[in-house]
Automatic annotation (TrEMBL):
Protein name listed in UniProt: Mce-associated membrane protein
ATP-binding in keyword set: no
Location of the region described as Disordered in the Swiss-Prot/TrEMBL record: 1-103
Biased composition (Basic and acidic residues): 30-56
Cross-referenced PANTHER family: OUTER MEMBRANE PROTEIN RV1973
Transmembrane segment boundaries: 107-128
Top-level taxon of origin: Bacteria
Major location category of this protein: membrane
Length: 268
């Protein structure tokens, strides 16, 4: 004889509640499987007819595993996905351009090298100017002394020993002026001095008790221009007694391997 089991209304209501909770758990599992998407209004928990709405506070939701083997674990993310999603940092290929530590160090090294080279060039230039200034100052004294010694020799002669006087004068000359002096003395000065017994004696004027009147107009390491006051006393058969000429002479001197030599003489 078959025993019929009769369920009360209360037990039927509990069974409905169990079915409702199972449906809600399955719906929640589906939402979790879809990546926490927005809940579907159609899959929400349906209230049991005739039962008042239960409070959400303190509700325990049981989630039954899907299938016999339980829930499938989600696939682990691949490294490529992290590389695609990760923002590119500064200095990385394809990222925003920014100076790296190596680049800043290279820039600093380049700047220091440029400053060092500039400092060396400036020091060399200053050193060169200092040496040139020292050589020019030394040249002033040497050229002035050479001009005082050369003026009486170059501007004097005696018809009784012209060859000796002209040779001594040429020894103190240089360049094109030496050639011009040789031509002039041979063609003009020598024949005229022999004919009229000419004698010219030149001296650099000097104040009483002072040094010869000569000064340097300009000077460099290898060239100098000197202004001299020269007195020439001339005697000849053409002149009664003697004649004194007060001359201002501008003499240019050039440094040579044999010392300072006269390269030009101009009467002012």
């Amino acid at each position: 004889m078959t025993k019929t089991t009769t369920r009360s209304r209360g037990s039927g209501s509990g069974s409905g509640t169990g079915r409702t909770m199972t449906a809600a758990a399955r719906a929640a599992a589906k939402r979790a499987e879809r990546g926490h998407r927005e809940p579907d209004p159609a899959a929400t928990d349906k209230e049991t007819p005739g039962r008042p709405e239960a409070s959400e506070v303190g509700r325990t939701v049981l989630i039954e595993p899907k299938g016999e083997n339980g829930w499938d674990d989600p696939p682990e993310p691949s490294p490529e996905s992290f590389e695609e999603d990760a923002p590119q940092r500064e200095g990385e290929p394809g990222g925003p351009a920014a100076p790296t530590r190596h680049g800043r160090r290279r820039l600093l090294t380049t700047t220091l090298c440029v400053l060092l080279v500039a400092g060396l060039v400036a020091a060399a230039l200053l050193g060169w100017r200092y040496r040139e200034g020292a050589r020019a100052e030394q040249a002033r004294g040497q050229a002035l002394a050479a001009a005082r010694q050369a003026a009486p020799v170059v501007l004097s002669y005696d018809y009784r020993h012209l060859d000796r006087d002209f040779a001594a004068a040429r020894a103190r000359l240089t360049g094109h002026f030496r050639d011009e002096y040789a031509k002039t003395t041979t063609a003009v000065v020598g024949p005229t001095a022999r004919k009229y017994h000419g004698v010219v004696k030149a001296t650099v004027a000097a104040p009483t008790g002072g040094s010869p009147a000569a000064s340097v107009i300009s000077a460099s390491a290898d060239r100098a221009v000197v202004l001299l006051f020269v007195n020439q006393v001339t005697t000849s058969t053409q002149v009664s007694g003697s004649r004194v000429d007060l001359n201002r002479v501008r003499m240019t001197l050039t440094r040579t391997s044999d010392g300072w030599r006269v390269s030009a003489v101009d009467a002012l």
